[in-house]
Each structure stands twice: as C-alpha cells, then as structure tokens.
Design a protein that fits this description.
Blueprint lengths: L1 H5 L3 E6 L9 H18 L5 E9 L2 E7 L7 H4 L17 H11 L3 E7 L2 E9 L10
Parallel strand pairs: 1-2
Antiparallel strand pairs: 2-3, 3-5, 4-5
Helix pairs in contact: 2-4
Length: 135
C-alpha cells in the first residue's frame, strides 16, 4: 500500500470468503509480494491494482490485476524462464519464485494479458468439504 500511495496508484481488495488453505506463510508472502510489485511497476500513476480471492471450479483463486500496457506475446510465452526480465534493473527471478511456490503448493498460475492490462491468477485446489473414503 505504501509504495502504491507514493506512486499515486490505488490497490483495491476484492476478497471473497474462501476456505483456509495449508500454505507456507513465507512462500505465499513472497508470491504475493512479487505479483503485486510487478503489477505496480507495470502501472501508471492513477491506475488501480486489484487483488481478488474467489472460488471457481473447485479451486481457491488469488488474482492480481493491473491496468498496464500488457505483456508482449513473445514474452508471455516465456514467462517463468529464469533471468528473463523486461525491467532495466530486474533480475528475472521474481516470477520464477512465483511459479516455484505455486508448484510446491500444488497450484498453477494462469496469465491473461492484453493492451488494457494483465491478470496473474494462482489456482489452488480447494480443500474437500468431506474426506474421501475408499472401501
């Protein structure tokens, strides 16, 4: 929030009720930090970054949406490649960390991008309401 305020950007939360997930707090904190930092860097002053949680198709989804210029198709297909960066001072490791954290937690990352912005969605399997019993 502090970084967004300094740069005249708004961070909006749209958090639905979701079930608790067993996740590594440090890993998930790093994933969120990297995705939000990327969204802030892709945005212009006055833009809004939306952080969402919701349930869809048996998954708990965490999404970060920005209003930047989008990701070029030739870069989009290479996302998650170590040391790939479009930033002057980027290491190209932030998204690699995100993909590794998602994989470690049995989740997947989906990306939607066009000239109106980019959304990174992390899809975690929702916990079962009832245990599955085998006979």
């Amino acid at each position: 929030q502090a970084e967004a305020i300094i740069d005249n950007k708004l961070v909006q939360l749209e958090l639905a009720d979701i079930p608790n997930l067993e996740l590594s707090q440090n890993d998930i904190r790093q994933l969120i930090l990297n995705l939000v930092r990327n969204a802030l860097e892709a945005s212009k002053p006055g833009d809004t970054i939306i952080l969402r949680t919701f349930l869809e198709d048996g998954h708990v989804v965490f999404a970060v949406e920005d209003e930047g210029n989008g990701i070029e198709p030739h870069i989009l297909e290479k996302l998650g490649t170590p040391f790939l960066s479009t930033k002057d001072n980027g290491t190209g490791l932030g998204l690699v960390v995100c993909y590794n954290v998602a994989e470690k937690h049995g989740a997947s990352i989906k990306v939607a991008s066009d000239s109106g912005g980019t959304t990174f969605s992390v899809w975690f399997k929702a916990p079962s309401e009832q245990p599955v019993l085998f006979s």
